[in-house]
Amino acid sequence: GAGVSQSPSNKVTEKGKDVELRCDPISGHTALYWYRQSLGQGLEFLIYFQGNSAPDKSGLPSDRFSAERTGGSVSTLTIQRTQQEDSAVYLCASSFRTTYNEQFFGPGTRLTVL
Amino acid sequence: GENVEQHPSTLSVQEGDSAVIKCTYSDSASNYFPWYKQELGKRPQLIIDIRSNVGEKKDQRIAVTLNKTAKHFSLHITETQPEDSAVYFCAASRGAQKLVFGQGTRLTINP
């Protein structure tokens, strides 16, 4: 079946603007995760949704970052008043299992803040 | 919280030789340890994983070992091929919670 999809694939914005990044998880996956990968770096956890539970927001770097997941499926990551240090690849992953965490990643959105 | 350390950061081996990448973790409650391969400009791809109730798992040329007492796990690639060149990430998680990743190992296979 279809994998995790993300849009847009690339986003260039000016400092101070707001951006929205979208993630479509694999159908039937109950868990959805957002990670950030800066150039040449590892993956940094941002936020995690599991079913109807309250999301784990412990990785969000500031209150400019927020995310929502509507209807238990599509998720949107919003960054307000973007800064240059927000430039990175934002990766979404989804998972079906609730015991062991096989996460499947989307292609990512490359965000460049000028 | 969990902390995962990965070594080495870069690794260069001759084609046909073996490669070993090692990770340590801090949270004794972590029970799932995947390895991801990321080629340049591509998404991370799960290549193998191991659960805390198993000490070793093998899939063709790839194997992973887990030592729960010492809190470390390793990726072993045998008979390396040029297409194995990529960045490899280890990770750890507790149940279905977030993955905590190591910093990655850039593996280069020299022909």
Description of the molecule:
The complex is a heterodimer of chains A (114) and B (111). Chain A is mostly beta strands. Helix content of chain A is 0%, strand content 46%. Chain A has strands at 5-7, 10-13, 19-24, 31-37, 43-50, 65-69, 75-79, 88-95, 104-105, 109-113. In chain A, a hairpin with a 5-residue loop joins strand 4 and strand 5. Chain A is globular, with a radius of gyration of 13 Å. With 111 residues, chain B is an all-beta fold. In chain B, a hairpin with a 2-residue loop joins strand 6 (56-59) and strand 7. Chain B is globular, with a radius of gyration of 13 Å. The relative contact order of chain B is 0.34. The model of chain B has no long low-confidence stretch (mean pLDDT 95).
Give a brief outline of the structure:
The complex is a heterodimer of chains A (114) and B (111). With 114 residues, chain A is mostly beta strands.
Can you give keywords for this protein?
heterodimer, A: 114 residues, mainly beta, six-stranded mixed sheet, four-stranded antiparallel sheet, globular, B: 111 residues, five-stranded antiparallel sheet
Number of helices of chain B: 0
Order of helices and strands of chain B: EEEEEEEEEEE
The separation of the N and C termini of chain B measures 41 Å
Regarding quaternary structure, what we see is heterodimer
**Spans where pLDDT lies below 50 across 5 or more residues of chain B:** none
Largest protein-protein interface: A-B, 27 and 24 residues
| Percent helix range of chain A | under 10%
What is the number of E strands of chain A? 10
Strand percent estimate of chain B: over 45%
Instruction: Report the β-strand fraction of chain A as a percent range.
Output: over 45%
Report the order of strands and helices of chain A. Answer: EEEEEEEEEE
Mean pLDDT score of chain A = 92
Class from secondary-structure proportions of chain A:
mainly beta
Termini Cα gap of chain A: 37 Å
Largest β-sheet summary of chain A: 6 strands, mixed
